[in-house]
């Protein structure tokens, strides 16, 4: 991938393709027939002269414009121009100096596409974005440069983890994920520790080991630390499910769309992305990221329905369905976060349940927390970043569904309310530590991409959490 050069200037240099944003009700540029362009959000019109292209993009009505309106409009325009083969693009943001960050994010996120392997490069006519110019007035240059830089870091890291996320199960095993985390951390001020199977067994990570034992690719626990805050401040722990492929195990899944379970690792990749971006942005916070990773396969030594597993802190799990594996590896990782780091809060990301997709669809992730302040911070961060979340309950009442006769809990309850019961399951291992569970099963990837993105892994959770950290998640 050639690197992308971003510059913030007052007028275009060279002859980039120009993107201009249009607010409904303002005067159309000369020669544009009103029946061809109505200025609704995402509505586009391509104008050409001899030397370059101008793409007009609608934003809708003025008083409804939010950061995400610009983010999506810029993404839609860039995706469109890249399909036409563009390489250099200029965004006219003179009228929107406060939305420079959102527009830069939209442009960079739209420029990522998973190329696959062994495809004929000659047939790929899609342009690769090499230069992005941001146009603003002279007195906005400083403000715009700060926004552009932060947005560039957040979106570039997001694309990095989308690239890893889109690797299929045969190319990304838990061990390979750990190696990639180590490589990426080495370039930054991050420390990494990786538990191999032997160390997991030595230290009592019974949940991660149980889920991983059906696969010939052994499990890992990846722990990253970033210390940008005051030495004595307790860190925030971020925990992410990274099941590199989820067949369901002995309780095997049906065949249809099972390939999508290569994206069952996106919670873990969100955590990796947040740590990478925090280091690049030099955020003044202390973070620890914990990524339990396993492949859930049927196999001669696979864990089975009926098994009773002892997790790191001694709590036990009666396995009634080996397809409810995410919560089992998360149990160990959350317990380790609590016991080893005494964090001020634990935030956990997982493609945990099909039920949350039934409840909320693909646009919003389920947000489960009993902490009002954390809930408000994440809801606001969702609105600001376009990574929307919706509060769902994790009351005591849901615990009843997972009580077991033979263990602390069982890993499935009844179908009714199962996204909430699953949330109350993982919360158990956080004990008294303030806890947030984000069920990203509907938002972590897309097979029906919107106009401003390509399909595949979305990187959901990275920009959301960076915004939450800036808004005081850390205290
Ligand atoms: N990874 C899946 C959840 C999932 C399903 C994510 C569909 C995205 C799309 C998870 O491990 C799982 O299989 N959950 C089961 C739990 C059930 C057995 C209680 C589910 O949701 O069906
Ligand atoms: Zn599963
Ligand atoms: Zn899963």
How would you sum up this structure, described in words?
The chain contains 12 helices and 20 strands. The protein is α/β, with parallel strands linked by helices and 475 residues long. Strands 7, 8, 9, 10, 11, 14, 15, 16 and 18 form a 9-stranded mixed β-sheet that branches. Strand 12 (308-310) and strand 13 form a beta hairpin. Helix 2 runs parallel beside helix 3 and helix 10 (372-385) packs across helix 12. The mean pLDDT is 97. It binds ligand BES and zinc ion (2 copies).
Write the layout of secondary structure elements.
Elements: E1 5-9, E2 17-23, E3 44-48, E4 53-60, H1 67-83, E5 88-92, H2 100-110, E6 131-135, H3 141-165, H4 174-186, E7 191-195, H5 197-203, H6 206-212, E8 220-227, E9 236-240, E10 242-246, H7 266-281, E11 286-296, E12 308-310, E13 316-318, H8 326-341, E14 345-350, H9 354-360, E15 364-369, H10 372-385, E16 388-392, E17 409-410, H11 418-428, E18 435-439, E19 445-446, E20 456-457, H12 462-473
Parallel strand pairs: 1-6, 2-4, 2-5, 5-6, 9-11, 9-14, 10-11, 13-17, 14-18, 15-16
Antiparallel strand pairs: 3-4, 7-8, 8-11, 12-13, 15-18, 19-20
Helix pairs in contact: 1-2, 2-3, 3-7, 6-8, 7-12, 8-11, 10-12
This protein binds ligand BES and zinc ion (2 copies).
**Sheet having the most strands:** 9 strands, mixed
The end-to-end span amounts to 39 Å
Bound molecules: ligand BES, zinc ion
Poorly predicted sequence stretches spanning 5 or more consecutive residues: none
Q: How much is the average pLDDT?
A: 97
């Amino acid at each position: 991938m050639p690197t992308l050069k971003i510059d913030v200037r007052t007028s275009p240099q060279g002859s980039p393709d120009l993107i201009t944003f249009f607010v409904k009700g303002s005067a159309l540029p000369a020669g544009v027939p009103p029946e061809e362009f109505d200025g609704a959000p995402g509505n586009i019109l391509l104008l050409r002269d001899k030397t370059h292209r101008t793409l007009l993009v609608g934003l809708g009505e003025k008083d409804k414009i939010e950061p995400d309106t610009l983010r999506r409009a810029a993404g839609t325009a860039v995706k469109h121009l890249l399909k036409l083969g563009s390489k250099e693009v200029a965004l006219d943001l003179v009228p929107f100096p406060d939305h420079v960050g959102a527009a830069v994010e939209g442009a960079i996120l739209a420029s990522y596409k998973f190329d696959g392997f062994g495809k004929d490069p000659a047939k790929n006519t899609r342009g690769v974005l090499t230069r992005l110019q941001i146009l603003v007035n002279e007195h906005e240059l400083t403000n715009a440069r700060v926004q552009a830089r932060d947005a560039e870091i957040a979106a570039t890291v997001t694309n990095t983890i989308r690239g890893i996320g889109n690797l299929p199960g045969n190319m990304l095993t838990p061990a390979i994920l750990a190696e990639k985390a180590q490589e990426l951390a080495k370039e930054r001020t991050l420390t990494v520790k990786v538990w191999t199977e032997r160390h997991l067994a030595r230290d009592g990570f019974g949940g991660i080991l149980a889920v991983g034992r059906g696969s010939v690719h052994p499990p890992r626990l990846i722990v990253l630390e970033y210390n940008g805050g005051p030495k004595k401040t307790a860190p925030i722990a971020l925990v992410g499910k990274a099941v590199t492929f989820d067949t369901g195990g002995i309780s095997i899944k049906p065949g249809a769309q099972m390939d999508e379970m290569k994206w069952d690792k996106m919670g873990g990749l969100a955590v990796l992305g947040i740590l990478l971006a925090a280091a690049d942005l030099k955020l003044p916070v202390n973070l620890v990221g914990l990524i339990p990773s396993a492949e859930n396969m049927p196999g001669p030594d696979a864990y089975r329905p009926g098994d009773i597993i002892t997790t790191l802190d001694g709590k036990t799990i009666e396995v009634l369905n080996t397809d409810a594996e995410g919560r089992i590896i998360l149990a160990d990782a959350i317990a380790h976060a609590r016991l080893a780091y005494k964090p001020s809060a634990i935030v956990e990301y997982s493609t945990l349940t099909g039920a949350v997709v039934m409840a909320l669809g693909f646009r919003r992730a389920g947000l489960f927390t009993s902490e009002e302040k954390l809930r408000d911070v994440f809801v606001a961060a969702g609105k600001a970043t376009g990574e929307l979340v919706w509060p769902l309950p994790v009351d005591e009442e849901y615990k009843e569904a997972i009580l077991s006769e033979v263990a602390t809990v069982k890993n499935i309850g009844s179908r009714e309310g199962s996204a909430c019961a699953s949330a109350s399951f993982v919360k158990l291992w956080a004990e008294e530590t303030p806890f947030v569970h984000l069920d990203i099963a509907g938002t972590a990837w897309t097979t029906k991409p919107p106009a401003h993105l390509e399909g595949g892994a979305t990187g959901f959770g990275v920009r959301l959490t960076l915004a939450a950290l800036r808004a005081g998640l850390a205290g």
